[in-house]
Amino acid sequence: MARNGPESTAGARLIRVGSRSSELAMIQSETIVAALKKLHPELEVQITTMKTIGDKILDKPLPAIGQTNLFTKELETALAGGQIDLIVHSLKDLPTTIAPEMKVAVIFKRDKSTDAVVLHSKHKGKRLQELPSGSVVGTSSLRRIAQLKRICPDLVFKSVRGNLNTRMKKLDESGEYDALVLATAGLERLGWLDRIDQELDSSECMYAVGQGALAVETRASDDSTNALLEQLNDMESVLCCAAERSFLHSLSGGCSVPVGVFSEVRDSELFLEGAVFSLNGSEMIKSSAGVRLPTGYAEKSVAFWLSQGEQLGKELGAELLAKGASPILAKAKEESEIGRD
């Protein structure tokens, strides 16, 4: 049965948004709220913030914590309990398997999906490949480490945790790091494009599944909220991100295994490239696939876009498994779990 949703004291429809509490998370939530209110100016919106497991445990690399829902669990509990109506996520933080009573209602127009290098001031003007041997690069991403070891074998990679503001302060002030590798989109949303010293293309570092995209998670049964949100979906972003998430799901991957992707819609074709890596970057299995989209695909339903993407991702995942990805993934997962306790 459709829900009418809560009402404010003035009788207007009230939408309650759940968000992580960092500055970046709030900017992302406010982006979705602004887009929603542009479509439905009569709505009242309330943002509720909370800290997740990933925000609270900062003394361990992400894979060592041992959960896939590090940045979503507390928010999803509030959503399931009816305390909020929707959650705004960085899509890359949202596991590819969510509870059956939940729904990814929106994949918003994607920002840049690439990774970026931010250098300490003493290295300004250089590229990552030009840093002195032994330079320390901060990142908690196994995907980034595995790929960058292939092109920069003499660099040292060290975990760095905390929100973007915290990580940038550690780079500038701690003396521990010569550079950071971060998502370009996060830096752009915070207005820090001038801090980017190098943007890595996919030949250097394939990006994370869903990177650069914002997603809105709702209760699947909340028909009225889902109807309000549907127009926020961006066709190309839905196609590409659905393909990427299906690919990762078919590999049973998460933050504990190095998996990289590249996707785009070009000349009426959905193209997806995916790869799995060993933790030290010495092994890689990579392949690509595409599907021709029918005439008028842009006018078709969100469900159609999802189905096209999901099928392509599933096929590419099966191809990599057939080429021998399973042993690499299993070994990477095993190695990443060492020292978890």
From TrEMBL:
Any one GO BP annotation for this protein: heme biosynthetic process
InterPro entries in alphabetical order: HemC, Porphobilin_deaminase_cofac_BS, Porphobilin_deaminase_N, Porphobilinogen_deaminase_C, Porphobilinogen_deaminase_C_sf
Transmembrane segments: none
Pathway: Porphyrin-containing compound metabolism; protoporphyrin-IX biosynthesis; coproporphyrinogen-III from 5-aminolevulinate: step 2/4
Keywords from the named record: Porphyrin biosynthesis, Transferase
E.C. no: 2.5.1.61
Cofactor(s) named in the record: dipyrromethane
Family: Belongs to the HMBS family.
Function: Tetrapolymerization of the monopyrrole PBG into the hydroxymethylbilane pre-uroporphyrinogen in several discrete steps.
Name this polypeptide is given: hydroxymethylbilane synthase
